[in-house]
Amino acid sequence: MEKHTGFKHFIKAFGYSLQGFKSAFKSEAAFRQEFILALVLIPLGLWLGETGGEKALLVASVLLLLLIELLNSAIEAVVDRIGTEYHELAGKAKDLGSAAVFIAVLILLSVWGCILIW
């Protein structure tokens, strides 16, 4: 397999990223819902944030949720690839991924709450 470097590597990596986004959007309902939420919240955060820092925090908290959801989906895909039978560690991996998404939601809510309410 040919190893790409420099700009060609960047282009290949970009293509793989697009494949990942398409796959997540097609097969992951939670990602679709959060992506649609991001389409609303990111422009809203840029409009409602009063300073550059506030705008950055509002947008970053939304992007963090998408990031964690993608990682959770990746964990679930790997676990499902290994086998469909129940295994304690497989369940633990999926639960930990879900907990990470929950924390990302809490971060989003706390950032938006602190900036917009207090």
TrEMBL record:
Cofactor notes: Mn(2+), Zn(2+), Cd(2+) and Co(2+) support activity to lesser extents.
GO BP annotations listed: phosphatidic acid biosynthetic process
Pfam family, one: DAGK_prokar
Residues involved in substrate binding: A30, F31, R32, Q33, E34, E69, S98
Subcellular location: Cell inner membrane
Primary subcellular site in the record, as a coarse category: membrane
GO molecular function terms listed in the Swiss-Prot or TrEMBL record: ATP binding; ATP-dependent diacylglycerol kinase activity; metal ion binding
Keyword set, alphabetical order: ATP-binding, Cell inner membrane, Cell membrane, Kinase, Lipid biosynthesis, Lipid metabolism, Magnesium, Membrane, Metal-binding, Nucleotide-binding, Phospholipid biosynthesis, Phospholipid metabolism, Transferase, Transmembrane, Transmembrane helix
InterPro entries on file: DAGK (IPR000829), DAGK_prok (IPR033718), DAGK_sf (IPR036945)
Membrane topology note: Multi-pass membrane protein
Cofactor(s) for this UniProt protein: Mg(2+)
Binding site for a divalent metal cation: E28, E76
A cellular-component GO term for this protein: plasma membrane
Binding site for ATP: Y16, E28, E76, E85, Y86, H87, K94, D95
Function: Catalyzes the ATP-dependent phosphorylation of sn-l,2-diacylglycerol (DAG) to phosphatidic acid. Involved in the recycling of diacylglycerol produced as a by-product during membrane-derived oligosaccharide (MDO) biosynthesis.
Similarity field: Belongs to the bacterial diacylglycerol kinase family.
Name of protein: Diacylglycerol kinase
